[in-house]
Automatic annotation (TrEMBL):
This is SDR family oxidoreductase. GO terms for molecular function: oxidoreductase activity, acting on CH-OH group of donors. It comes from Silvania hatchlandensis. InterPro entries: NAD(P)-bd_dom_sf, Sc_DH/Rdtase_CS, SDR_fam. It comes from the Bacteria. Belongs to the short-chain dehydrogenases/reductases (SDR) family. It holds the Pfam family adh_short_C2.
Amino acid sequence: MAIALVTGASRGIGKATALELAREGYTVAVNYHHNIKAATDVIHQIVEEGGKAFAVRADISDEAQVLAMFDSLDREGEPLTALVNNAGILFEQSSIENLSAERINRVLATNVTGYFLCCREAVKRMSFKHGGKGGAIVNVSSAASRLGAPGEYVDYAASKGAVDSLTTGLSLEVAAQGIRVNCVRPGLIYTEIHASGGEPGRVDRLKSVLPMQRGGQPEEVAQAIVWLLSEKASYVTGSFIELAGGK
Ligand SMILES: NC(=O)c1ccc[n+]([C@@H]2O[C@H](COP(=O)([O-])OP(=O)(O)OC[C@H]3O[C@@H](n4cnc5c(N)ncnc54)[C@H](OP(=O)(O)O)[C@@H]3O)[C@@H](O)[C@H]2O)c1
């Protein structure tokens, strides 16, 4: 058995990914920030389906909490072979005139620094040079990195641009260390993140402009993540999968 850590696995895309990874036989570390009830519900669902999972609380933007989270994984007695960097935030839709330094830094601290810290700790455990057996990382970026999210959250879009560069650079850096690093770029997916932007119904407002004319489900993103982590994708690294209904 091996551990897959999914950050932000209490809800949305992370939850769907955690459920699917448990079905694939991983012991899933369900990371969450505030919502312990939602994280516990995910654990219960996995256990009810015959899988194995445990919850691990950590704010991924806080280095000490990330270190403590990985320490707790080390005590589980199974190797960490998969990381899904998924936890992400955005704030109220706004044009640039109202973006404060505090907001921009909070977005970058979670969506960029948090991804870096989790990658760093995973590489220390997976890479051949540190005695690991290899592994795979999937970063959850966004179509916003290509489209820019004008008038809504350019700060968020820019953070996802950094996730794309992290994916490319790290994939090259650790390719010979037995670690594959890939990325998914979801578009409009039905989750609670849109409520954080002040518009819970955003997917339904915008879906008609998509070539496929519908929003996506978290499970459709999860399937791509699980494939990228699997041996079926054994020759895939530094790759990006668009899950955006054609836009
Ligand atoms: N939904 C979309 O349309 C869409 C499109 C493109 C990309 N994405 C990306 O997909 C990822 C998942 O988004 P989602 O829509 O599933 O979001 P969501 O429903 O809002 O869920 C966010 C998850 O992240 C966790 N989280 C937030 N801040 C955290 C932190 N500092 N440390 C640890 N966990 C934290 C939350 O934990 P708590 O429950 O404890 O708060 C929750 O589990 C994000 O990276 C997002 O940018 C989403």
